[in-house]
Write a structure and sequence with these properties.
Length: 115
């Protein structure tokens, strides 16, 4: 059974940085595109960044130039480096394969940007 576990969230001031990690169990990791998603209170879940199995990346316009997605296939882990954080980045952040599989949603990790 595949399990995705997110970590690294927390409270940070505007302009600060956080690095999120998503550890994947199972054998799907190296053959799947992976993505980071977020859901702010009262809003729909949205794709923030994606990375292919070969390392190609794409980003939502709202995070371009501030966030960087990367992956370590040997460790079955995908990362999201978040810099220059803004209050509007506050959300629960999740990882999943792309295309998304509902069964793979984990608990997420809360990111709060506030002074």
């Amino acid at each position: 059974q595949v399990q995705l576990v997110e970590s690294g969230g927390g409270l940070v001031q505007p302009g600060g940085s956080l690095r999120l990690s998503c550890a994947a169990s199972g054998s799907i990791f190296s053959i799947n595109a992976m993505g980071w998603f977020r859901q702010a209170q009262g809003k729909e879940r949205e794709l923030v960044a994606g990375i292919s199995s070969g390392g190609s990346t794409n980003y939502a316009d709202s995070v371009k130039g501030r966030f960087t997605i990367s992956r370590d296939n040997r460790k079955n882990t995908v990362f999201l480096q978040m810099n220059s954080l803004k209050p509007e980045d506050t959300a629960v952040y999740y990882c999943n394969v792309i295309p998304v599989l509902r069964a793979y949603w984990g608990q997420g990790t809360q990111v709060t940007v506030s002074s």
